[in-house]
From TrEMBL:
<protein>
    <submittedName>
        <fullName>Uncharacterized protein</fullName>
    </submittedName>
</protein>
Length: 73
């Protein structure tokens, strides 16, 4: 097996960086929605702990769906 060249490594780093930036753009609205959901539940009288748990479960499922195309492990 041959070692990747320096230009191959630079290209791979560039592609990984771009993928991470794209992921950030994808995930930011999901985190914002979870924060809003938690705040809304608290306004409706839910305890902060319960609201956090509901928002967390929703967030984990939403991130899983966004990153895996809805596939489950």
């Amino acid at each position: 097996m041959t070692q990747p060249s320096s230009s191959d490594m630079d290209r791979a780093r560039h592609e990984i960086s771009n993928a991470l930036l794209a992921m950030t753009d994808l995930i930011t609205p999901i985190f914002d929605k979870a924060d809003g959901m938690r705040a809304d539940l608290e306004r409706r009288g839910w305890s902060p702990t319960a609201a956090e748990q509901v928002a967390l479960v929703w967030l984990l499922n939403a991130v899983n769906s966004a990153t895996n195309g809805g596939a489950t492990a």
